[in-house]
Specification:
Layout lengths: L7 H17 L27 E5 L3 E8 L12 H9 L2 E6 L3 H15 L13 H13 L4 H5 L3 H15 L8 H11 L3 E6 L1 H9 L3 H13 L4 H13 L3 H15 L1 H23 L3 E8 H4 L5 H7 L4 E3 L2
Parallel strand pairs: 2-5, 3-4, 3-5
Antiparallel strand pairs: 1-2, 1-6
Length: 316
């Protein structure tokens, strides 16, 4: 155990200070599962710039753009090709609605779904040796043991990941999704989204105890290398190096954490493809901006749309 237990009301106060941070980047976990064992892949033959795909039929165009949810401030969210596609679109899709109302909802949902259940503190999920490692990592990142003891493992794992990235200079407010949404709002685009705030948080909270344990232990294992791995991921994304990006974001997760991969990527991709297929039956121009892990890979949106018979091309 991490020490004297605290009441649910006390836990609410303890986690309040980090709610806004977690709410702003809950989806960060969907693209942050990299493996330090991965070798650098060969660079793509395409010109530098985040990858953009397009699907066209007789009366509709759909751009697919994989994003990073947390990035360094002051950097453009995409190259000229992606910016032109966004300008052309009349409807812009993101994973969930990006708005102050959603941020406020997230803060409440984190408290509702993320606090430890009575009689089941965080430490009860781990061995004494594992608990010692988690405490050491948390303290090194400036988090108090009493705070994480009051949380469920999924929230601790996400918190450890996000704190590492923020301390390395990455900012959820600089995420490509938020910049795309801001442009859409300023230019009269219709906002669409695939999930609600509660659906996204409930999905994380609904992961099995084993998957939640994996999430925490991975964050601890990569605490020292986390910023370097994120830098590799960001560089691969910014230069359109999909081979490296797929290995870091998709392949390693599928191999090392298959249930985690199924819940966070594959199942959601299946639901989203059904929505996009229906959208393509209409007309007009759509710009779809979701985490890069959802666009690439054998279960990604590009592969699934191709399997359905659509011609999906990378925009050069």
């Amino acid at each position: 155990m991490f020490g004297k237990s605290i009441s649910r009301r006390g836990a609410q106060g303890e986690v309040n200070m980090i709610r806004k941070m977690i709410a702003a980047c809950a989806a960060f976990a969907l693209t942050a599962c990299a493996s330090s064992a991965t070798e650098q892949a060969t660079a793509t033959e395409f010109p530098p710039g985040p990858a953009l795909y397009v699907v066209r039929d007789a009366d509709s165009t759909m751009y697919l753009f994989g994003t990073l949810h947390i990035r360094r401030p002051g950097v453009a969210w995409g190259g000229a090709r992606a910016q032109a596609g966004l300008a052309e679109a009349s409807e812009v899709w993101t994973e969930l609605e990006i708005s102050p109302n959603t941020d406020a909802q997230m803060q409440g949902l984190v408290g509702r779904y993320g606090l430890a259940e009575p009689g089941r503190p965080f430490s009860s999920y781990f061995s004494p040796e594992e608990n010692a490692r988690v405490v050491a990592t948390a303290q090194r990142l400036g988090l108090q043991p009493q705070m994480i003891e009051a949380m469920k493992p999924w929230l601790v794992g996400l918190t450890l990941q996000v704190v590492q990235m923020m301390q390395a200079g990455y900012d959820p407010a600089a995420g490509a999704d938020r910049q795309i949404d801001a442009y859409a709002d300023a230019n009269g685009k219709t906002a669409r989204w695939f999930e609600t705030a509660e659906e996204q948080i409930a999905m994380l909270a609904g992961m099995s105890p084993d998957v939640q344990r994996q999430m925490v232990l991975e964050a601890v294992d990569e605490a020292d290398a986390g910023a370097a791995l994120m830098e590799r991921m960001a560089t691969a994304w910014e230069t359109g190096d999909l081979a490296t990006l797929e290995q870091l974001v998709v392949t390693d997760m599928r191999a090392e954490y298959p249930e985690f991969y199924q819940v966070l990527l594959a199942d959601r991709n299946d639901r989203w493809v059904a929505t996009l297929r229906q959208e393509l039956q209409g007309s007009g121009v759509d710009f779809v901006a979701v985490g890069a892990g959802h666009v690439i890979g054998e279960d990604g949106l590009v592969a699934q749309l191709r399997a359905l018979g659509y011609t999906v091309e990378r925009v050069e």
